[in-house]
Amino acid sequence: MKDKIKQLAAKYHPDIVAIRRHLHSHPELSFQEVETGKYIAQKLAEHGIRHEHGWGENGVVAYIEGNNPASKTIALRADIDALPITEANDVSYKSQNQGVMHACGHDVHSASLLGVARILHELRSEIEGTVKLIFQPAEERLPGGASILIAEGVLENPAPAHIIGQHVLPALETGKVGFRPGMFMASADELYVTVRGKGGHGAVPHDAVDPVLITSHLVVALQQIVSRNCNPIVPSVLTFGKINSTGGSTNVIPNEVKMEGTFRTMDEDWRAKAHVMMKKMAETLAESMGGSCDFHIMKGYPFLKNDEELTLRSRQHAVEYLGEENVVDLPMRMTAEDFAYYSQVIPACFYRLGTGNVARGITSPIHTDTFNVDEDSLLVGMGLMSWLAVRELEGGEGRGLRDEGFKIKKL
After folding, report:
1. Beta bridge partners of 236
2. Is the pLDDT of residue 407 over 80?
């Protein structure tokens, strides 16, 4: 079976590269993936693969049914949306949608999963159970497409025993993959802060209430919440990446200052406590300096925790497919992913796919305007994921939905 998967991956590789390039040339932002969803559905239809288009409006769910399809179901997930970045690469498949770019590798994820669909569809008479392929929209924007699809029932009828996802990692050479069982990625909240004062002439600050000064104190004070209240063994990050005044100038004190940031951690109790502390400190400090503060927290994705048993099994299956030298262990990351929603509800494994090639100069990080991938990574992307699905279907019964997991309400 392993050799058959590798042979089919090599056979379909040119087609999957072409699909990846089409997707890369026609990126669409979160909640706007209209043509992307149609294209994915069209490719599945061309090969007679049963699918449903319209999950989360633009998402697609496909089904590969082997022998005894009701015996066990495994879910595989790819995200399909792009980022608001203007591409700087000089390639034939450069983005044709100005200001939008597949700078996070979702084109690779989607193309790889279409490759998996073709491989497993051809081998369906040799596998047991069902593989559910989830082409998910809106990973990059809150509330996250995963939460929407879960609320719509994507983990039901049939209910998968496990879910597996992959994500590009340009720091890892093509041909390699990385795994981490247990806690892997952080929760992510967005902070929107408005500090209000009283504008005036910069030469007479005593006649004004300076929101710029209040904001500068606030940025420093908020950092102390993390450094002096969080248990040092709990990873946490507080970053403000945008500060703008309204109407200020070299000699003009503005009426208000707005700033935006992110708070990330891997402990839900501390997360909730920090929300209260940040809001209280911001409002109290601003008031003590004569101003006021609106501190809005948009609660984002939960932390991503890989199921230890599933991830260790998947790592071993990757060794079987790629060799020990091509499977690495990864550290925890403070980046976030809405795949975390699945991991809160069902046993999940989220691993990283090497896409870098130093010799060819393919080294740019994700979320940059020069991000690109070594397209040989698509061989591993579709081949390994097919192998992981087959090996999981061969295994024991899954545990089903977690009783204690994160509960998704209808949106």
Report:
1. 265
2. no
